[in-house]
Each structure stands twice: as C-alpha cells, then as structure tokens.
Amino acid sequence: MRRVIWAAILAALLFGLYWGAAALTLRLSAEALLGTLRRDGSADAASIEVAGFPQRFSLLLTAPHWQHGFWAWRGEDLRLSAPSQAPLQMRLDLPAEQVLRYGWLEFSLHSRDMQAALSLVPGRALALAGAAVAAD
Q1: How far apart are the C-alpha atoms of 95 and 76, rounded to whole Å?
Q2: N or C: which end of the chain has fewer CB within 10 A?
Q3: Is the predicted pLDDT of residue 135 greater than 90, yes or no?
Q4: What pLDDT does residue 124 have?
Q5: Where are the beta strands (DSSP E) in the chain?
C-alpha cells in the first residue's frame, strides 16, 4: 500500500512539473511572438496570462488587436485553450464583441459564443491538421 501512495505522489509531482514547464514555454512563446508583432506594428495585446492547472492550458490575450495592410481586427479578449492530456487539440474562443476594419469601412460583429476547434500535427512546425468554426 505504501508503494501505491508513493507512486501516486511521484505521478502527481511529475505531472505538476510537466504542466509548469509547458505553461512557461507557452507563455514565453506567446510573449516572443507578440514582441515580434509589436515591433512590426502589426499586433498588440494589453496582457498575456496562462492558467488552467491541472486540467488545461489556457492562454488569455487581453485587448488584442491585429492589423495587416488595409485589414484590422480587435476584440475584448482572445482565449486559446487545450486539455493538459491532449495539448494539440486546441480551442480558440473569440470575443463576443469584435470590430473588423477594411480601409475606411468598419464592421462590428456580435455573438454569444464563437469558437474554433483546431487540431495540430506534432512536429517543429505544428501544422494545422483540421479546423472547425462554430458561432451562436
């Protein structure tokens, strides 16, 4: 019985280390990407947060906005999350209030729930294997 208890403690410790290392990597990668986009002047966000222990990795961008040429997008917040046991099966939750701009035309998009399910292929490039978008 003692071995089972010690095995459970060891498994919990290893999982905690896995989650912490993965969350730190996720945060640093998001900050590096956002830093590059800020220097280019094409995107920004007020803050980046990683949460969700132990069930999921949840990356929250507060007040994100993106611009490329004539196109621009902004929203209240943007959340990318994935289960801890399947980090390549992601869900992107889009904000309820979004503003799209093309040149001088500006559109407001309102929804109760808009999300995209993303499936990535393992590897250095993390290629997109599939996606599905749902809105309400």
Answers
A1: 6
A2: N
A3: no
A4: 82
A5: 43-44, 47-51, 56-62, 65-68, 71-75, 77-83, 89-94, 97-102, 105-110, 114-120, 128-135
CB contact at 8 A, 58 and 32: no
Asked if 64 contacts 78 with a C-beta cutoff of 8 angstroms, the reply is yes
Instruction: For 67-87, write each residue's pLDDT tens digit.
Output: 999 999 999 999 999 999 999
- For residue 111, CA distances in Å to 64, 71, 94, 97 come to 17, 20, 9, 7
CB proximity list for 92: less than 8 A, separation 6 or greater: 78, 79, 80, 115, 116, 118
Q: Please tell me the total number of residues recorded for the chain in this structure.
A: 136
The answer to whether the bond into 122 is cis (omega within 30° of 0) is: no
Q: Where are the alpha helices (DSSP H) in 1-136?
A: 2-40
Cα 129 to Cα 120: distance, rounded to the nearest angstrom: 5
Query: Distance of CA 39 to CAs 30, 33, 35, 44, 47, Å?
Result: 14, 10, 6, 9, 16
Of 77, 72, 74, 105, nearest in space to 93 by CA: 77
